[in-house]
Design brief:
Helices cover about 10% and strands about 45% of the residues. By secondary structure, the chain is mainly beta. The longest helix has 10 residues.
């Protein structure tokens, strides 16, 4: 059995996408997405917000730059990656982020789904707007498309 590294989140952007470019000219977009859950019961019930760092590259970064804004409701699929580094005082830090492969905007005029040019296993993903893109959000969460 092979290992699975898959993250699915549905939440709102807490800030405008942070856009930067590499020296080679590739675009990178970093998003901070908030998800909420209710914890406790009765009078003790409280809302808890979890923040997720999501990074998109290439075409997906361009989509984030052009279509996403603070407050946008988004569905993201990707894989987790943890980075470690030492600060100037020698203290070790760790950050976990989602490397995004799929983004769906759930605001405005219907659902817009965009995927990276290749899925996580290297298989070509359908272009946005293709027949495979007509499923709604809940179908995608309940039964993700199998790679060809």
């Amino acid at each position: 059995m092979s290992d699975v590294n898959k993250a699915l989140i549905l939440g709102r952007l807490g800030f405008e996408p942070e856009i930067r470019s590499t020296k080679a000219g590739s675009i990178i977009a970093q998003l901070r997405v908030a998800t909420n859950e209710w914890v406790g019961s009765g009078a003790e019930r409280k809302e808890r917000t979890e923040w997720h760092r999501v990074t998109f590259f290439g075409r997906l970064a361009e989509i984030a730059r052009d279509y996403l804004k603070r407050g946008s409701l988004v569905y993201v699929e990707g894989r987790l990656r943890t980075n470690e580094w030492l600060d100037k005082d020698g203290k070790k830090h760790r950050t976990t982020e989602i490397l995004g492969d799929v983004v769906r905007t759930l605001d405005g005029k219907g659902v817009r789904r965009v995927e990276s040019a290749t899925s996580g296993n290297g298989a070509r993903a359908p272009a946005a707007g293709s027949k495979g893109e007509s499923r709604d959000l809940f179908d995608a969460v309940a039964s993700p498309r199998k790679a060809a």
